[in-house]
Amino acid sequence: MIGIIVQLALSWLIIWFFKKGNLSVLGFFPTKRRLLDFGIFFLITALCCSSDFFMRMWFAGQQWKLNPHLSSELILTGIWWNIKSVLFEELIFRGVLLYILIKKIGPLKAILISAIAFGIYHWFSFEVLWDVKQMAVVFIMAGTMGLLYAYGYAKTFSLYIPCAIHLGWNATRSVLFSESVIGNQLFIQVKPVPELQVSYFTFFCILLIPVISALLINFLILKNRKRVNLLNT
User: Fold this and answer.
1) Whole-number pLDDT of residue 233
2) C-alpha 109, offset from chain centre
3) So what's the pLDDT on residue 231?
4) In the chain, how many domains are there?
5) Is residue 195 part of a domain?
């Protein structure tokens, strides 16, 4: 939490020196529209992400069960970890630096730079540096999601939508289905995992459909949203 407070302080200093502005450029103030957006984009992304696990159950015979050691403290800790993680990344890649880039070079170039930086960052966070194949996969997956997050900010000049999509994806994988460094959360995978062979087509469907559906559905909704006037921010 201290790290996020430091980020906010640095963000305020940067935007103040840039245009004598304040953190209102991050769109933190909760309005009815922003809260509704958060709920919609979070649920859409969580459902798309969940399709990965549903397909693994259906096609590969994998199973998940309720964690027998489940507690409210455990879930709250997992949710809070995800919130801090998402806020940390959003303040870096979709915060005041993206706002300044949009003002300086326009939204398209700014979105591309933000997405590229986000993809490279995940080489380090996923610890795949020097493994060329893994680096390529991580860069494409994280960078493409970074495009969507940055587009969400550029369209609304608020972090509600990128945070909702980001949190919907991360929390589904880590809190709902316990696939992250924070350990077992709500549902845990039944062991041993069945060793079933599936076709390449099925494998790529399981791998790509959750990501593509999250990207396309969220993008189409954002595309039809009226862009916030940059001059009013």
Assistant:
1) 46
2) 20
3) 52
4) 1
5) yes
